[in-house]
Write a structure and sequence with these properties.
With 248 residues, this protein is an alpha/beta fold. It contains 8 helices and 7 strands; from the N terminus they run βαβαβαβαβαβαααβ.
Length: 248
């Protein structure tokens, strides 16, 4: 039997990369899948690339928009069984170049948006539901120059995952975190990486990763499926999908 048969799954930031790979996998396991993107262009592309998956434009940083999103999904489907909080931004700058807008832009999406989305969803999530947060090894390790704000947002998500897991136990809702290592996704292009810079990033990552390679979106999606469907005795955990980068 399909692992997510009959389940309603909402994936934010689901139009490309890890989110899109997870949407495909969840759908193949029987779920009705809804993904969000931040722009009409990305959502239109997802509708073509992900047949059978519903795609909605939603601003992850806008609390009112996240409430409207949950209301829309609930009106159409009645509930949300699985929430994959995957929408996020990653921007890098040295300390002297950081200003308030740079700080707010990442915390508004990665932390505030995630928190209020979860707040809205738990009211329509039945017992047995699962919430998965996408954090990053950047929330656990230092040393990557220019990642102070991004890493801080992911550390905050790790903390939210643990605290909310305990708070939501009485509701029968599990909360876990998946923390990818270096994964080659369109987020590199969104950050304006040139082909040479992307190649340098990948080569540099390989030298730091014990397994000697970067990961794939599909490998992170498999971890998300485990946390959504198989890890029924697991809550408050953080699953590193990083080739051994953090633990070895």
């Amino acid at each position: 039997m399909a692992k997510l048969a009959g389940k309603i799954a909402l994936i934010t930031g689901g139009t490309t990369g890890i989110g899109a790979a997870t949407a495909r996998l969840f759908q193949s396991e029987g779920a009705t899948v809804i993904v969000t993107g931040s722009s009409p262009t990305s959502v239109d592309a997802a509708r073509a690339d992900l047949p059978g998956v519903e795609a909605i434009v939603s601003n992850a940083a806008d609390v009112a928009a996240t409430k409207a999103l949950v209301d829309q999904v609930t009106a159409e489907h009645g509930r949300i069984d699985v929430l994959f909080v995957n929408a996020g931004v990653a921007r890098f700058a040295p300390l002297e170049a950081i200003d308030e807008a740079f700080y707010d832009g990442q915390f508004d999406v990665n932390v505030k948006g995630a928190l209020f989305l979860i707040k809205h969803v738990v009211g329509v999530m039945p017992a047995g539901g699962a919430i998965i947060l996408t954090a990053s090894v950047a929330g656990s390790t230092g040393g990557l120059a220019g990642s102070s704000i991004y890493g801080a947002t992911k550390a905050a998500l790790r903390s939210l995952g643990r605290t909310l897991a305990k708070e939501l136990i009485p509701r029968g809702i599990r909360v876990n975190t998946v923390s990818p290592g270096p994964i080659v996704t369109p987020i590199l292009d969104k950050n304006g990486f040139t082909p040479a810079q992307k190649a340098n990033f990948i080569d540099g990552a390989k030298t730091r990763i014990p397994m000697g390679r970067t990961g794939t979106s599909e490998e992170v999606a498999a971890a998300a499926l485990y946390l959504a469907a198989d890890a029924t005795y697991t809550t408050g955990a953080e699953l590193f999908v990083d080739g051994g980068l953090v633990e070895l």
